[in-house]
Specification:
Length: 211
């Protein structure tokens, strides 16, 4: 076992990580913030795939781009960001952390900024698919802006915002937030959506590394 290759070890680590975040109800932690932080790790894997996609002609990578933007719109935003906006952030406000002029307000602004880049990427990719290759520069520029924003955003949430939440939200309420996350996923996304997008993340990793 000690002689496993680095690639095998990485594959095993990724498989174990994927297994522990397949659904809110299966998460090993009692903290809602821990689940959100684990989702950040999945999002970062797709951001790395997008970074590889901007290194090659977009017209030759239409399907991977579609998968990446589908993941970003539905997992990173509709699943992850909306859990923060509808569940975590209101709980933090109820415990005295302000929205206006505070860290929550900044995160909300960055969510909206990210959505503007995603809309621009969808529009540009549609034009590229229709044969307008000059639009590649627009796609790549918005992708790079999105990568910069999301990576900085994730760091702020992991290192600052989630720690603030852990300080003010008691353990029993954190467990309830996890249940509320599960309800959100079922109502907004449908069952088994986590599994679907974990598979897409893995597919994007494999495709962008080999193509």
């Amino acid at each position: 076992m000690e002689n496993r290759t680095a690639a095998e070890k990485l594959s095993c680590a990724q498989s174990a990580h994927e297994a522990k975040i397949t659904a809110c109800r299966q998460h090993p932690s009692d903290k809602a913030t821990a689940l959100l932080s684990d989702e950040h790790r999945v999002i970062e894997r797709v951001l790395a795939a997008v970074e590889r996609l901007v290194q090659k002609p977009a017209g030759a990578s239409i399907e991977p781009w579609k998968k990446a933007l589908d993941f970003i719109r539905h997992f990173a935003d509709q699943c992850h960001h909306i859990k923060e906006e509808k569940v975590l952030f209101p709980a933090m406000e109820a415990h005295g952390i302000p929205n206006e002029g505070g860290p929550i307000g900044m995160m909300l602004l960055e969510h909206e900024e990210g959505r503007s880049y995603v809309r621009a990427m969808f529009d540009a990719l549609g034009k590229i698919e229709a044969g307008e290759q000059a639009t590649q520069a627009v796609l790549f520029d918005n992708a790079k802006q999105y990568l910069r924003l999301l990576r900085e955003h994730i760091q702020k949430e992991d290192d600052i915002l989630f720690r603030m939440a852990d300080e003010v939200i008691p353990a029993d309420e954190q467990r309830q937030l996890l249940k509320d996350f599960e309800t959100h996923e079922a109502e907004e996304m449908g069952l088994e959506v986590h599994d679907k997008y974990l598979k897409i993340a893995a597919e994007l990793e494999a495709t962008t590394r080999t193509s």
